[in-house]
Amino acid sequence: MNVSNSRREEPPKRGRAPREPKEPREKAKHPILRALGRTLATLICLGIMVCSLAAVAAVYYAVQATANDGNLLDLDNIELSQSSTVVATDPDTGAQVEYATLRSSNSHRVWADLEQIPTNLQYAFICTEDKDFYNEPGVNFKRTIGAMVNEYLLPIYSSKQGASTLEQQLIKNLTSDKSASGVEGALRKLREIYRALCLSRAYSKETILEAYLNTISFTGTIQGVQTAANEYFNKDVSQLTLWECATIASITKNPTNYNPYTNPENLIHRRNFIMYNMWQQGIISEEDYRNGAAQPLVLAEEDTNKKTSSVTSYFTDALFTEVVHDIMDKEGVDESTAQSMLYTGGYTIEATVNPKMQTAMENLMLNEGDAYFPAGWHEEEVTSISDDDVQVMNADGTPKTRTGDDGTVYYYRNVRTQAAMVTLDYDGNVLAMVGGLGEKTKSLSLNRAYSVTRQTGSTIKPIGAYALGVEYGLVNWSTMLNNSPLYQKQDMVIRDEDYCRKNGLMGLSDSQLKAYPNAWRSWPRNYGGNYGDGSDLPLWNGLARSLNTIAIRVGDLVGASNIFNFVYNTLQLTTLDPANDVGLAQMVMGSQTHGVTPTALAAAFQIFYDGEYTTPHLYTRVLDRDGNIYLENNATSYQALTPQTAYIMNRLLKNVLYSNVGTASGRYPNSNGMESFGKTGTASDEKDLWFVGGTPYYVTAVWWGYDAPYDMTNTLGKNQAKTRTCVTAWKAYMEQVQANLPYKAFPTSDGVVERAYCTQSGLLAGANCSSRATGYYRADDLPDTCNYSHSSGVAAAQSADTAPVVGQDTTGLDTD
């Protein structure tokens, strides 16, 4: 083998191993971009953290801010908060009709269950206010976010956008958490959203919708669709037509702009827009929409039996006061609580008012042109002036004032005469009441017929002295009584206060005053200032003429304490003063400390029908919202006089109107031949004038005077027949309200007989007596028969009884 020719293999050269491939390297970013990226990432993280914290804080705030809601959003009990309704009996049909509502100044609501509310009315609200109502959790987040962006960040819409769901609107209705701007507005919205979410979780959509429809606000103080249906269309909500449903749903958008009475055209446009929405959303057909849009806006005519004005009548005011008082007694609560219960309890009050009589009395008491009650005016000094006052001004236009020694500034206002009238039946039901002249402008204003006491003047004579005199057998129709003062000047019993005042003798005692003969006067005087002529007059004549001299003698026989006990306890004239009113001046001539109200006085005259007295009352029952009896009036009835005395007194008081000597002679109402009775009354210095009159149907009291007692002679003159003012108004009123009533007579009594009496002696007329007249007597207590010889002029009784003189006396003021 040729080794030299072969190629020798050499071992490979040792070198470096191959490198691993490296990842491709990115091109380095600019340092500024790198910094911005890191900053953005950090901000995003911080934003997320802040938003999370804000969300937690918002939830915490909402929970804390609504923690005291309590029963505010308790929809299970919200139905209890609704107005109370006053119902009365329609005098024509006998049916019960709504007369008024008792509501606070905040709302008037009557509840309607969802089943009563037409589907069209439900969807009239849903389609326009919250079309996703049934599919959202109480809040429409899409609309809410859009509205917030538009409001606080960027104006993405051309106008302010609403995003409230029905739940949120309901919350606004139930809470005082109302609209605000800025930060507070955002916080309020947060509270509202949280409450809406909670409400949606706690209650069904049906419950929420029912609450919403019963709390939505309309014009004035009207709340709820039931009240709106009655107010605008005089219908129950269940009877509303499509276009009426749309009308009601329209008003709530803006009660002023869409007021049906002041802006009907705006309302029609809104109504048609709502029906269009209902068509577009498949609730109604196109035909329904077009038919509804073609309907004119026809509102209900005013119901004459219903007080639609927000100003309540004098009767309703008094009714409110009476029911509140009875609630206080029943529940043991204070007045404020009782008022709140009545405003929100949803009670039905069965009132005694006769709507036609109430309207007739209100119209008469408007006194247009001073038709019945002349206007007397005088200046009155007061420490403050209200908007209703007629302030007295100086010639230079500045207010007339006076500054007292203590720095008090006194102002002057012109005040005019006022009046009041009230009518009852003989079961104590108050049928009509007006407590002032002119148009009533305020609810719960001064009610002179119900809550203001006045001195009675002579109207107390028949219910006290005369009635008890006949009842006790002390006097009768023809008892002869002397027309002269009970006490003469020389008796030194009654002070002449004018003389004592002028001569500085007011501080002397009676024993010291004996040294001054002219410091005394005869008492009493008759109306007009005379002391009588000293003749003997039959009792009927003295009563018909309202002679104080005759009445005082009867009162002296009966006794002032007996009269007071009777009128205070039996006739319930409890505003009389037991400490100061037990005297002949107060109990016969009517010069009491405070006096009585027209309502109480009218009730007292009930006894001249059949002798029975019934407590005056303004309602029969109060029903709760479930129809259960909650209250019944606490009136009591009892026999105050025997029927015999009542009938005799009825005939005696008839003479006030029908005899030619009566103080109201000829002023009886012409009512289908029905009779009537009455009594005038004038307090001292003509400060209070009265008439109380009765017919077989009604008894009515009328008062006229100044609110602060003032002598009307100074403002109306001495020659005006002021004593006939009240009876003239009563006559006109009775003729109107009795015009269509069937004839009715006063009840008679089997124990009363008609007999002829001798006009000279007052005893029953003998066979030969030619001077005779007819009177009414108790059959078991007839006078003796008179043997009278006209030729000799001597009268002799077969027998005679002498009644004891009892009672007490105090000085008093002159009355009619």
Automatic annotation (TrEMBL):
Its membrane topology is listed as: Single-pass type II membrane protein
Q: Transmembrane segments in this chain: where?
A: 40-63
Where this protein primarily resides, as one coarse class?
A: membrane
Q: Which reaction does it catalyse?
A: [GlcNAc-(1->4)-Mur2Ac(oyl-L-Ala-gamma-D-Glu-L-Lys-D-Ala-D-Ala)](n)-di-trans,octa-cis-undecaprenyl diphosphate + beta-D-GlcNAc-(1->4)-Mur2Ac(oyl-L-Ala-gamma-D-Glu-L-Lys-D-Ala-D-Ala)-di-trans,octa-cis-undecaprenyl diphosphate = [GlcNAc-(1->4)-Mur2Ac(oyl-L-Ala-gamma-D-Glu-L-Lys-D-Ala-D-Ala)](n+1)-di-trans,octa-cis-undecaprenyl diphosphate + di-trans,octa-cis-undecaprenyl diphosphate + H(+); Preferential cleavage: (Ac)2-L-Lys-D-Ala-|-D-Ala. Also transpeptidation of peptidyl-alanyl moieties that are N-acyl substituents of D-alanine
Gene3D superfamilies annotated for this entry?
Biosynthetic peptidoglycan transglycosylase-like (1.10.3810.10), DD-peptidase/beta-lactamase superfamily (3.40.710.10)
Keyword Ion transport belongs to the record = no
Q: Which residues form the Glycosyl transferase family domain?
A: 102-278
- Keywords of this protein's UniProt record, alphabetized? Antibiotic resistance, Carboxypeptidase, Glycosyltransferase, Hydrolase, Membrane, Multifunctional enzyme, Protease, Signal-anchor, Transferase, Transmembrane, Transmembrane helix
| Protein name as annotated | Penicillin-binding protein 1A
Source organism per UniProt: Faecalibacterium prausnitzii
